[in-house]
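Protein folding task:
====================
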Amino acid sequence: MPEAKRIFGDEPRLRCSSKAMDALDGADALVIVTEWKEFRSADMDTIKQKLKTPLVFDGRNLYDPKFVRAQGIQYLPIGRLDSLMPTQPEAFFPASLRRASGYSINVSEE
């Protein structure tokens, strides 16, 4: 954490926490880019409760996509194309995001 503080200084949009789960309080989403034990065996109910939106981007592929989604969490495992897109991609990519991103996703707007 000292290195992050050195790099980002007093950036008001950055909040550092000494405990991994405390960092989730009021966060928009969880982005996993580490294999910390705290997230490897995380309580999905706690994650869902702490986040503003139950959304997890998993860059380490720590979890079984079907299990996490069954907990009511939007789950995007990075690099796992076999489980990346749900059956209804509009649930993950609302129309405003699809237009703003410049990416084309074939989803009905009905």
Observations:
- The chain has a mean pLDDT of 76.
- Residues 26-101 form a domain with the Rossmann fold fold (CATH 3.40.50.720).
- The CA atoms of residues 46 and 52 lie 12 Å apart.
